[in-house]
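Hi R.,

As promised on Friday, here is the backbone we talked about, encoded as structure tokens. Could you run it through your design pipeline when you get a chance and send me back a sequence?
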């Protein structure tokens, strides 16, 4: 397997740096890349890795960066702004494309290139981090045990600390409102409504429907027509969420406020530190149900989300470089429901412990 033939774009971001460290730990030598030499060079000097500068709006610089590369890992988000030019170039030159998006339009875009990716002999695999490996694999696991499942619910708990990029991506998505999948179609759902209680391996949490990549990807990886994705919130927030979100939706609809918010996030949000990454745990729940009410539930107990993302991303890259899957695929479509168990520190439960 070629451990040096891949490009890490967005290498100076919070998550990009974690992935670079994990790659080095496993003996990889990715080429670091990003749009700003001032930010990329110090990381290249610190890690001893080669680097290249590529502005995504300049096709020549992107082509140069991709020359001789077998796979691109894109850590530069929000991916709605960065993925399209890289995917286009990857399709043109026959290079595998991966990223860590959770954004539905990005997944929809890659699925639209399935045939072309197959023809070019490459894989387009978005969401190779916390979003969506655990939920995608668990969705596949429970639906495989309920033949003809008509409903799928997925929820996660434990996103305690978030990175600047995650917060910026969320702020961009808030004005669009919520979504659920019903009868195969994505339909609007009021953000902040629909709270319910779910048991997780660490106890009961209140969860609320949110926009999560699986609304698109689990539809492809399981074929289930009705999907709801939830996130756990602390109880004190639940009461204020509907009103709070409605105010935020109005505020963030203004481009000026969006820009100001993004700047404030860049200055103030640092992402979880090493202690939190090593100590925190995250939990995932999935439930599939058929038309007669037969159901299967399962849970995952996984490392902290950003640590999980770094470890899972490098493992996924290794598998792609070794197995060369083809087409627009989710991780579970390419590697099966048990793939998540290969990620160190992950446990799956069919019944809750204790
Ligand atoms: N799937 C998952 O579980 C998962 C986990 C972690 C993060 N994420 C997602 O990954 C993304 C990055 O998060 P983060 O916290 O690491 O972000 P971050 O620290 O803010 O870093 C963002 C990176 O993206 C680059 N970038 C942004 N817009 C760009 C553009 N238009 N052209 C070129 N480069 C651009 C930035 O370059 P500059 O510094 O030059 O601006 C920087 O390298 C977010 O969308 C986040 O939601 C997903």
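Update: got your reply. Pasting your designed sequence below so it's all in one thread:
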């Amino acid at each position: 397997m070629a451990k040096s033939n891949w490009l890490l774009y967005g290498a100076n971001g919070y998550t990009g740096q974690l992935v670079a460290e994990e790659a080095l730990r496993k003996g990889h030598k990715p080429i670091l890349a990003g749009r700003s030499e001032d930010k990329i060079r110090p990381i290249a000097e610190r890690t001893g890795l080669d680097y290249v500068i590529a502005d995504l709006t300049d096709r020549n610089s992107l082509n140069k960066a991709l020359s001789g590369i077998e796979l691109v890992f894109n850590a530069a988000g929000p991916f709605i702004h960065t993925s399209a030019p890289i995917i286009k170039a990857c399709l043109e030159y026959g290079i595998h494309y991966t990223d860590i998006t959770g954004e539905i339009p990005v997944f929809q875009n890659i699925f639209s290139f399935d045939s072309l990716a197959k023809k070019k002999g490459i894989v387009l695999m978005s969401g190779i981090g916390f979003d969506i490996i655990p939920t995608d694999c668990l969705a596949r696991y429970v639906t495989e045990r309920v033949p003809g499942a008509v409903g799928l619910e997925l929820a996660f708990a434990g996103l305690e600390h978030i990175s600047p990029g995650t917060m910026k991506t969320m702020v961009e998505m808030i004005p669009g409102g919520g979504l659920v999948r019903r009868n195969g179609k994505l339909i609007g759902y009021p953000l902040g409504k629909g709270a319910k209680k779910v048991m997780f391996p660490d106890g009961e949490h209140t969860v609320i429907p949110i926009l999560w990549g699986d609304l698109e990807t689990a539809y492809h990886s399981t074929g289930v027509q009705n999907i709801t994705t939830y996130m756990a919130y602390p109880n004190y927030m639940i009461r204020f969420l509907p009103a709070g979100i409605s105010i935020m939706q109005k505020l963030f609809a203004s481009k000026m406020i969006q820009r100001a918010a993004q700047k404030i996030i860049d200055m103030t949000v640092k992402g979880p530190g090493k202690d939190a990454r090593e100590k925190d745990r995250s939990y995932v729940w999935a439930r599939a149900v058929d038309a007669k009410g037969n159901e299967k539930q399962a849970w995952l107990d996984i490392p902290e989300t950003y640590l999980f993302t770094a470890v899972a991303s490098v493992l996924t890259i290794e598998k792609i470089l070794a197995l060369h899957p083809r087409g627009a695929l989710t991780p579970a479509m390419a590697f099966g429901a048990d793939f998540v168990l290969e990620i160190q520190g992950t446990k799956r439960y069919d019944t809750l412990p204790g």
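One thing I noticed while checking it: Residues 141 and 236 are 33 Å apart (CA to CA).

Thanks again,
M.
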